[in-house]
Amino acid sequence: MTFATKTPAGFTGAQIGVLESIMRPLGIVCELATLKRTAETLLDTYVGVRAGSKVLNGTVKRGDGEWISAVVSFADLRGFTRISNTLPADKLIKFLNQYFGAMTAAVEAHGGEVLKYIGDEIMAIFPYSNADEAEDAARRALLAARQTIQSIEEINQANICLETPDLSVGIALHAGDVFFGNVGSETRLDFTVIGPVVNMAARIAELAKDLDLEILVSEVIADIMDCRCGLFGEYQVKGFDEPVRVYSSASALSDNASLYPDSTAFRALEAN
Hints:
Elements: H1 13-47, H2 49-56, E1 65-77, H3 80-86, H4 89-109, E2 113-118, E3 121-128, H5 131-158, E4 169-184, E5 189-194, H6 196-211, E6 215-218, H7 219-224, E7 231-235, E8 244-247, H8 264-271
Parallel strand pairs: 4-6
Antiparallel strand pairs: 1-3, 1-4, 2-3, 4-5, 6-8, 7-8
Helix pairs in contact: 1-2, 4-5
């Protein structure tokens, strides 16, 4: 820390004594502020802005958290097992970073938050508090999904050197109440969202893979958007007794609101 004065004679002895007396306490304050800023940056980077804020403000015990309403987005990278078995490690990391970067940028650009990178999957949330916010959250989640698909197409087109294979992804959206908080052991915690809504979103992501679709949304999302165009079908998913209705698009965001399934994967599932 330095001090300067325009006084021709410089600081007096008394003034120097005052400045020296405040340097140590001020240094401690600056150090604490710097540590807090560093902690905020680390938590935002590793657990997300909302989750990081909760942890920094004391939500640090196992079971601590709250129930919130949110649109949950699950993205699944296609063919990752085969790719990870064939690509060298450096190219595999580049491949994953392109995929993670594309979706994270899209989610954050539309006000959502990525909570987890789970192998080749990404889980993100778009919280809301009321019906109006729910529609806005669903719209933003759909826009983020579309931006992700567009970004991945641009990455594939630019990948002229064939350093990594083309990216392909399926994204599922579902909404409802989820527990947003700490789960884990006594010595290792994870700040995440859990609940049936999260489980269903994951199952719809698996269904999107089976149906070879890029974006698939639940009936809850269709209800929130007040749009039932693009009904893809009704399917049984693992872990749920009742079949789930899924939609391939939402007319509010689709250039073709009358999308209807016509694919080999769809016909195969219908036959079963």
